[in-house]
């Protein structure tokens, strides 16, 4: 089935619906609805309560809604008109001709390979920032008609769900979703046959079915080993995202890289280029070498041929994100595959090490990606500096500043992350074509002329919506933990839509330094209890095996009995994509406290800025590029100091900024009740951050500097040296 075609699954769903609602079957299987301004409202108009109960899954909503509910929706002229309009817009977007990729054959797409994708909460195949960035790029590629296909894994158990006990200790649990419950379909070969592929792992063939999720114009193909042909242990390979057992994780990465190349070949897709988004899918390079090796090319020439078709993005300087394996671990999983390529295992293993490394050194997934890519990019300018030093061994004889790792700073997909009230405000004042060119600074120049009262009204509305959400969720979370009723009710009574609201929400890892919020309990509690108080919304999951991160959450909970803590601090459990959208829209201040230089980029602060929130961040990652002194606040942390001293200084700087600048500026109101100074800073934030940190700019840079034949001149001229 092509992007504009129909399918048996859609036909079956259509048959369940009243005739007037049958276009909903097409809409349900196209995630393009999820970033359309009227998409969410359409599903809620059918049955708001059931929509939430179904996990905002349109397929489940339409299957599970009683017939009477569907008939009532079919009789609603406004709903039907909105449905017809959305269906027509999605159809037109799918049918529009693809943009060209200069220098490539017409119709040849970029193949984007990644271990996770955050498309929508109803497709739970993501854990954090890597997936969010990947999902945003796919959505932007759809908007820009960029010829791109994506490949990942279908995790039936997804990432874990989080439950905290009364001490704040995290407990994890998983739920299983079958593909038939998701708005995805079996991928079909050109002859209409469902596609499956085989990948040899641990000496036996493992079969993977291929599913297709439609992300607007972009097809996302997902490999699934939970099929009857596999033994029980192999069926589990693709089941759980970032499974803890190392051998399983290596098998996942082998399935992702090798399986992606084989799946695209079976589907008749001939990519012009393969984009390895992080090191996880790096084994795709070995599979791409199969053809030149079969022709009798030596390994070095085969790799050189592959390199012309591969680019790589590295996303983190944190060791856990750049996984390595002992040679014996690699061969236990891949010996048969490597020998099937006609390669000596020693030579194959050397590809996953820097030039000159010894035979006992570990095999790195990021190392393999770097060795086999024509260009490598980091995800911010600062991260590029760190990455050049990290990976300099791949370019022997060069100083770190000469290492050809460039930067393409991350961005966010504006239609997905800007809340409707802010979009509507900007559309009124910036003109109808503003959102179609979000990377053009000239389109944002009119932000300064927006009447202060209108902008403040939108910010107050978004804060009030977040407060209502936080009240409801925190009450439910506290009740589920078995907290005393008096403690439960304190959040419901006093979390206040008129109070300065500070947000800290992201994956809980030690280097993110959530603990700095309570490093000085006295000052922290005074900020909550002052005549001009603030309230804090916190959310995030710690990796199941990161005990240090779990302890940080417990340090937050240890203060819950202190005065005003129960009323003005909420920790929202089970952070996901939908919760993130509410938080970045409603918070007045978005706090980020990474230990530099470990924040590769970060994107949550960009999302908050696009909704009128102000950043208060350590100068690391993207904030080094985004902060200009007028559009938020910065903490200039010194990475050269020891961690204890660094934490103490950064925590003190955080409290100083909150006490002396942030709180006074928010509450300083004129005769009209408006915080004019705060609003000026909000306008500066929207105007300066909006155009520079959208995925429209990010994708344009990939197209011009990375995807274009031979990449940018600096990168293309110098691939990694020392091919075995």
Give the SSE map.
Elements: H1 8-15, H2 23-28, H3 39-46, H4 48-53, H5 58-64, H6 67-74, H7 77-95, E1 110-113, H8 129-143, E2 148-153, E3 161-164, E4 170-173, E5 185-186, E6 196-201, E7 204-215, E8 218-224, H9 232-235, H10 246-266, E9 273-277, H11 284-288, H12 290-294, H13 299-307, E10 310-313, E11 324-325, H14 327-340, H15 345-350, E12 363-364, H16 365-371, E13 375-378, H17 381-390, E14 405-407, H18 414-417, H19 420-430, H20 452-481, H21 485-494, E15 500-505, H22 521-529, E16 534-539, H23 547-557, H24 565-568, E17 569-572, H25 577-586, E18 589-592, H26 604-610, E19 614-618, H27 623-626, E20 632-635, H28 643-667, H29 676-692, H30 695-707, H31 713-716
Parallel strand pairs: 1-2, 1-9, 2-8, 9-10, 10-13, 13-14, 15-16, 15-18, 16-17, 18-19, 19-20
Antiparallel strand pairs: 3-4, 5-7, 6-7, 7-8, 11-12
Q: How would you characterize the overall build of this protein?
A:
- The protein has about 725 residues and is of the alpha/beta class.
- The chain has 3 domains: about 10-95, no CATH class; about 110-410 and about 700-715, Glycogen Phosphorylase B (Rossmann fold); about 415-690, Rossmann fold (3-Layer(aba) Sandwich).
- Helix content is about 45%, strand content about 15%.
- Helix 27 (about 625) links the parallel strand 19 (about 615-620) and strand 20.
- Helix 8 (about 130-145) packs across helix 30 (about 695-705), helix 20 (about 450-480) runs antiparallel to helix 21 and helix 25 (about 575-585) packs across helix 26 (about 605-610).
- It is globular and about 80 Å long.
- The relative contact order is 0.10.
């Amino acid at each position: 089935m092509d992007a504009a075609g129909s399918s048996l699954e859609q036909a079956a769903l259509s048959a369940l619906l009243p005739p007037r609602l049958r276009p909903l079957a097409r809409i349900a299987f196209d995630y393009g609805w999820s970033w359309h301004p009227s998409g969410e409202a359409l599903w809620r108009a059918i049955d708001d309560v059931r929509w939430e109960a179904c996990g905002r899954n349109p397929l489940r909503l339409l299957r599970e809604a009683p017939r009477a509910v569907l008939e009532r929706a079919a009789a609603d002229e406004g709903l039907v008109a909105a449905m017809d309009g959305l269906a027509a817009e999605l159809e037109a977007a799918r049918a529009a001709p693809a943009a060209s990729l200069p220098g490539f054959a017409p119709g040849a797409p970029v193949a984007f390979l990644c271990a996770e994708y955050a498309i929508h909460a109803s497709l739970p195949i993501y854990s954090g920032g890597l997936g969010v960035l990947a999902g945003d790029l796919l959505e932007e590629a759809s908007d820009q008609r960029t010829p791109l296909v994506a490949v990942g894994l279908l995790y039936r158990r997804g990432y874990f769900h989080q439950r905290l006990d009364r001490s704040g200790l995290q407990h994890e649990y998983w739920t299983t979703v079958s593909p038939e419950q998701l708005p995805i379909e079996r991928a079909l070969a050109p002859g209409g046959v469902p596609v499956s592929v085989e990948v040899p792992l641990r000496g036996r063939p493992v079969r993977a079915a291929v599913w297709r999720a439609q992300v607007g114009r972009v097809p996302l193909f997902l490999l699934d080993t939970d099929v009857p042909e596999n033994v029980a242990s192999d069926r589990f390979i693709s089941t759980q995202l970032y499974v803890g057992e190392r051998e399983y994780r290596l098998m996942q990465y082998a399935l992702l890289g090798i399986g992606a190349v084989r799946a695209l070949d079976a589907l008749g897709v001939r990519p012009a280029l393969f984009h390895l988004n992080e090191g996880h899918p790096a084994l795709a390079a070995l599979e791409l070498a199969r053809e030149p090796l079969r022709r009798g090319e030596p390994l070095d020439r085969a790799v050189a041929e592959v390199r012309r078709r591969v680019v790589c993005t590295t996303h983190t300087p944190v060791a856990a994100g750049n996984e390595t394996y002992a040679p014996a671990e690699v061969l236990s999983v891949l010996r048969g595959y490597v020998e099937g390529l006609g390669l000596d295992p020693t030579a194959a293993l050397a590809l996953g090490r820097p030039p000159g490394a010894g035979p006992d050194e570990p095999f790195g997934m990021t190392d393999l990606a770097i060795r086999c890519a024509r260009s490598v990019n980091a995800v911010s300018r600062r991260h590029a500096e760190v990455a050049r030093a990290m990976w300099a061994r791949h370019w022997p004889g060069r100083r770190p500043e000469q290492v050809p790792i460039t930067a393409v700073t991350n961005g966010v997909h504006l239609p997905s992350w800007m809340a409707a009230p802010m979009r509507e405000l900007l559309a009124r004042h910036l003109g109808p074509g503003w959102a179609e060119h979000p990377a053009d600074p000239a389109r944002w120049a009119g932000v300064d002329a927006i009447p202060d009262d209108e902008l403040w009204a939108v910010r107050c509305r978004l804060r009030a919506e977040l407060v209502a959400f936080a009240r409801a969720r925190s009450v439910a979370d506290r009740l589920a933990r078995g907290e005393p009723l008096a403690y439960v009710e304190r959040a419901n009574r006093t979390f206040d839509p008129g109070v300065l609201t500070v947000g800290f929400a992201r994956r809980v890892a030690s280097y993110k330094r959530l603990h700095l919020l309570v490093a000085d309990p006295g000052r922290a509690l005074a900020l909550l209890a002052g005549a001009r108080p603030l309230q804090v919304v916190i959310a995030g999951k710690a990796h199941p095996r990161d005990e240090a991160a779990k302890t940080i959450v417990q340090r937050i909970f240890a203060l819950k009995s202190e005065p005003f803590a129960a009323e003005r601090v909420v920790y929202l459990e089970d952070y996901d994509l939908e919760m993130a959208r509410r938080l970045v829209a409603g918070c007045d201040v978005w706090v980020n406290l990474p230990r530099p230089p470990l924040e590769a980029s970060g994107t949550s602060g960009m999302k908050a800025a696009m909704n009128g929130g102000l950043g208060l961040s350590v100068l690391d990652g993207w904030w080094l590029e985004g902060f200009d002194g007028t559009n938020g606040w910065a903490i200039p942390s010194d990475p050269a100091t020891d961690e204890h001293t660094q934490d103490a200084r950064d925590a003190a700087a955080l409290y100083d900024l909150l006490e002396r600048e942030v709180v006074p500026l928010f509450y300083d109101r004129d005769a009209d009740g408006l915080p004019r100074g705060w609003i000026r800073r909000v306008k500066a934030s929207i105007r300066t951050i909006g155009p520079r940190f959208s995925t429209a700019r990010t994708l344009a840079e990939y197209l011009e500097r990375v995807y274009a034949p031979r990449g940018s001149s600096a990168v293309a001229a110098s691939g990694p040296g020392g091919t075995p």
